[in-house]
Design goal:
Length: 249
């Protein structure tokens, strides 16, 4: 059996990263076979955070052929949505308001929302700092350039290059920008990596419980602004545990 060089569904390049046994379609934002998960991930809380756009609603929009790529979300209107089952005028207005609100985001969230293989939240933040708010800089970066960035190995770098090399993905990004999606400040208000110097640079934090004056996300951003890192659980490498009300065990 000879593995095809292109996806049989959308025609995008099929790529197999070093050390992996799976060949994947590189047209993540465009491929119909990946449509549901791509749009659901794009709208998820840690990505563009579009309230009211869960899996069932995504299924409905795809089933009625209203949405094919994330860019189509920004072409929806209240009149069209109001005609759907279980979607009254109030729900339609709320969803459109949430979509419009999402047009102002941050570059790390946008990079994460693209669903690039191996690019999670922290990797997205690393690349946003390096790009200093300029997505084009990341889109045109070479494999060699990306591997110079701290904590970025050859597999992640190759995955990013493959994603942005694919014409279909680039077209969707252009459509998203044309639909009004933008970010006001580079790197989620986190200074460029070379400007981060403090007494907690490189220290590992765990947040638990409800904080009095900040949300967990705000506390996370403040720690990262000073060069600290957030981890999900306490280990031998943890430097600080920030404890709020009703903490975990």
């Amino acid at each position: 059996f000879i593995m095809p060089a292109h996806c049989p569904v959308c025609g995008s390049h099929a790529v197999r990263l070093a050390g992996e046994s799976i060949t994947r379609c590189s047209g993540g934002l465009y491929c119909p076979a990946q449509r549901k998960q791509a749009i659901w991930h794009f709208a998820s809380r840690r990505a563009l955070d579009i309230n009211g756009l869960g899996e069932q609603r995504v299924d409905q929009l795809i089933g009625h052929e209203l949405v094919r790529t994330p860019a189509d979300l920004y072409r929806l209107d209240v009149a069209t949505l109001s005609k759907l089952e279980r979607m009254g005028a109030k729900s339609a207005n709320n969803l459109i308001a949430a979509i419009r609100k999402s047009t102002l985001t941050t570059l790390p969230r946008f990079i994460y929302a693209l669903g690039i293989h191996h690019v999670g939240e922290e990797t997205a933040k690393t690349h946003a700092r390096w790009a200093q708010g300029d997505l084009n800089r990341l889109m045109t970066a070479t494999l060699e350039t990306l591997q110079i960035i701290a904590d970025v190995g050859p597999v992640v770098a190759q995955s990013i290059v493959d994603f942005f090399t694919e014409t279909h993905n680039r077209e969707v990004i252009v459509q998203l920008r044309a639909g009004g999606l933008h970010w006001s400040q580079p790197a989620d208000n986190i200074p460029a990596a070379e400007t981060i110097h403090s007494t907690i640079t490189g220290k590992k934090f765990v947040l638990t419980g409800t904080l009095n004056n900040l949300t967990r996300e705000q506390a996370k951003v403040r720690i990262e602004q000073q060069g600290g890192k957030i981890t999900g659980s306490v280990s031998a490498n943890t430097d600080y545990v920030v404890v709020g009300v009703d903490p975990g065990s």
